[in-house]
Amino acid sequence: MPNITLSGVAKSYGGGDYAVKNLDLTVPDGAFMCLLGPSGCGKTTTLRMIAGLEQPSAGTIAVGDRILDSVERGLYVPPEKRDMGLVFQNYALWPHLSVRENVEFGLRMRKVPAPERRARAAAALKMVHVDAAMERYPSQLSGGQQQRVALARMLAINPTVLLLDEPLSNLDARLRLEMRAELKRIHDESGATIVFVTHDQLEALTMATDIAVMNEGELQQLAAPMELYARPANRFVAEFVGSPPMAIVDVGAAPTGLAGSLLRFVESRAAGCAPAGIGIRPEALRLDPPPDAAWSEEALVEAVLPAGSSWTVRLRILDAELYALSYTPVEAEPGDTLTCWTDQMHLFGEGGDRISSWDRTKVGA
Q1: Which segments of the chain does DSSP mark as H helices, in order?
Q2: How far apart are the first and last CA of the chain?
Q3: Mean per-residue pLDDT, 130-148
Q4: Is the pTM of this model over 0.90?
Q5: Within 10 Å of residue 49's Cβ, how many Cβ atoms?
Q6: What's residue 168's pLDDT?
Q7: Which candidate, 52, 228, 254, 343, has a CA 20 to 30 Å from the CA of 85?
Q8: Would you list the domain boundaries of the chain?
Q9: 4-232 and 247-363 share one CATH topology?
Q10: What was the pLDDT predicted at 303?
Q11: CATH top-level class for 4-232?
């Protein structure tokens, strides 16, 4: 399938408030694109416009050369003619139909012959590993199984695009982990283009080939997961992606305390660099003996929060509170003093955009 292209797309519900503002976005053929952002950022509205459930107030949505929406030209293709499958946050299964009948439902609406319906339903259920429950009813399935049936129903109609609106948010932690792996496998096996809406950064980072971060209706950054994490475009992306989030220390006109300490270090490595904010990710704030080339300061341990495979430590460094994330046991207790250090910083300008990154002795990465 050709690329999905949104050009200058906006959506207003009246009163001058825009849920989506002047969005330019391309979803490559075969991509697993995640629309990521907080509640109310416009990601679900964007998905619904791609599906045809909402019509844009401005702009154009096209698949290759085929225009699905054009406000300027007055064109609109209804959802059933877009060759896209949509999976909602709730499973939306018919309780009085068996699993097989639920999966066959869309095919029946398309008047697909019964033998072909059964074959396609069985193949879709096998793909999501629920074929053994084919004759059961939704009430006899777990939440994870019901979500797989909802996916199978969409896969059975063989859509070229699969649109998923936070389909894992109703599942418990273990089932969500299983479904992430399932969705990755389905994408690899089917080759379908997937657009996935989520507010969970972990889902986006672990599944997507591309992530579009949105905030207040605007696209903040479009990048591959590790590119997004390593080089966030601005402060919003830097603080939204990462858990615990990146700490950004504001640098004023005459910085003192932690801001002053960081700025002096940055200036010693890059003369003339004048960031408005300096960011440090918790996992980059280390508690072992520092190397010579790193920034370091004494830190007061305020709390140690073990999580089995990792330890989060709340630190008081000069006049600021920061978090460190360690994957080795932390023996310190509240009230202890440690030397903390980092060799990775992100530098942000007055407008919030990232102007540079520093890794050990190199600024400008």
Answers
A1: 43-51, 99-109, 114-127, 143-156, 173-190, 201-207, 225-230, 235-240, 257-269
A2: 36
A3: 88
A4: no
A5: 25
A6: 81
A7: 228
A8: 4-232, 247-363
A9: no
A10: 96
A11: alpha beta
Structure tokens that stand for 5 in this block: 């292209």
With a CB cutoff of 8 Å and minimum separation 6, the contacts of 349 are 275, 276, 355
Angle between the N-to-C axes of helices 114-127 and 99-109, in degrees from 0 to 180, rounded to the nearest 10: 130
In sequence order, the 6+-apart residues with CB closer than 8 A to the CB of 226 are none
Q: Residue 271's pLDDT is what? A: 67
Q: What is the pLDDT of residues 269-295, one digit of tens each?
A: 776 778 999 999 999 999 988 888 899
What is the pairing mode between strands 32-36 and 210-215? parallel
Task: List, in sequence order, every residue forming a beta bridge with 358; answer none if it has no partner.
Answer: 345, 363
Handedness of CA 10, 15, 16, 18 (dihedral sign): negative
Which pLDDT does position 361 carry in this prediction?
47
**Amino acid of residue 236:** F
CA angle 293, 287, 281 (to 5 degrees): 80
Instruction: Give me the residue label for tokens 């909802």.
Output: 150
Side-by-side strand order, sheet with 337-342? 320-326, 311-317, 295-306, 337-342
* Amino acid code (one letter) for 205: L
Identify which of 85, 95, 15, 22 has the alpha carbon closest to the alpha carbon of residue 50: 85
Tokens standing for residue 354: 């990232």
Strands 18-27 and 4-12: antiparallel
* CATH code for residues 247-363: 2.40.50.140
What is the Cα–Cα distance from 8 to 271, expressed in whole angstroms? 40
